[in-house]
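In response to a reviewer's request, we include the raw inputs and outputs for one of the modeled complexes. The two entities were modeled together in a single run.
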Amino acid sequence: MHPERDDPGLTRRAVLTSGVAGIGAAGLPAFAAPPQAAASPDAKTGVAVKLRINGRDESLALDPRVTLLDALRDHLNLAGTKKGCDHGQCGACTVHIDGRRSLSCLTLAVAAQGAEITTIEGLEREGALHPMQQAFIDNDAFQCGYCTPGQIMSAVACVAEGHASNEAEIREYMSGNLCRCAAYPNIVAAIVQAAPKMRRG
Amino acid sequence: MRPFSYDRATDAQAAVRAASVRAESHVAAPVQYLGGGTTLLDLMKLDVMRPSALIDITGLDPKRFGSVEKSAAGLRIGALARMADVADNKLVARDYPMLAQALWLAASQQIRNMARLGGNVLQRTRCNYFRDTSYAQCNKRDPGSGCAALDGHNRLHAILGTSDQCIATYPGDWAQALIALDASVELLGAAGPRAIRFAELHRAPGKTPHIETALAPGELITGFVIPGGPWRRSLYRKIRDRESYEFALASAAVALDLDGDNVRDVRIALGGVATRPWRSAAAEAALKGKPLDEASARAAAEIAFAGAQTRAHNAYKLPLGKATLVRALLEAKAMEI
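The model returned the following structure tokens for the whole complex.
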């Protein structure tokens, strides 16, 4: 589940970035400035932000407007968390903040300081998939996969909260995660499979 | 999003001092409190709200501002309590089922984890003409500009408490339970603390739909007090376009105190159909002292919606709202407590 980090020498993101820069070098307009330029600290508006993500401390200088979602994706190269609607309506950006599933698109990075943040990249343990990740694979619980990281983060919390005792409860408590491919029956099946494994620890 | 400064409050009084600036209303004030951010950041991204300074209040003392406690006056719920926590609170679910139901039937678990109750009651309308700044007409967003909803797509709009300036629906659920139970709101302002009835917090749109509440700029909601009562027989029924994670088309918060079949006391509030949290004292009066059955419930529903004014696309809310109330009354009667 770690396409961004499988090969630090050539990640999907790095390929995308260098591809864009290559177009710029070929003489097209200079809108293709490297993304790092936007991340550079601005003496006027940048504020020091310390985040603890997947057990690691990260120090950034950010405009206060930067959401936790954009901090993860654009500043920390943790692009597993997805941007869907960016307005709190789809759940694609779901992460855990101090163990609670939360929407990173409606959380300011500067306001998430001091909290323990877990993203999809932080679920595995020593190279082994989390039982929920494995259950999504076993049950074919996705089609296009875009909502999947948010679904999995939400599902892990759904079980941990004790809101996964039957299919009806799972459907109710997973309603904040939309899947436009409508993989819902398989998502419910994956949670049903993973829940007892999670409870056993 | 427009630029803003961010500060984290550790002292409520200092936060209130910093936020108490001159403005026409608390929503127009350049300094806004940041709680869960689920309404504010959404509206800032849409450029509907444009504060230049945010004061994050989530670090204030959780004991004083975030707890649920039983007291002589009833139940006190701190304004920083999270929707999810109060929805799962056993005391709340036992003594005031409608308070818990109105929370877990709202939003998604992610949003319930983030949103605090002080902000929950202040959530702003979902009227698309308000939320989409490409529409020039919205008296709530731009006073005096007109109302595009009056003759526009008004399927989701209110039929009670409307004016010729605004028909935007108050979207919240929990507020209906609070107004039904005659809760009070604790406030902290520059001049000190005060308390008002929850029923006095929200204003009808009238000629000034941009002024939504009785809050002064910088005035902070610190808690809610729900009077004790025989309200274990209470519930919240919500009808919507999809089964979960959606705003109400019509809803009813109902609390009953029965003596056999006879209504000793009753509380009725209606969501999804009005411009503000909406309690129907007339419908309550019609039921008091009488047996509750389908006929009396229907008669009360007629009274509750007597003043309704429908538009081109929302006339369905009249029969739907009545049916929702009748069902809520009969289901509350059938509750085993």
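As requested, we also summarize the result in words. The radius of gyration of chain A is 18 Å. Residues 1-9, 17-43 of chain A have pLDDT under 50 and may be disordered.
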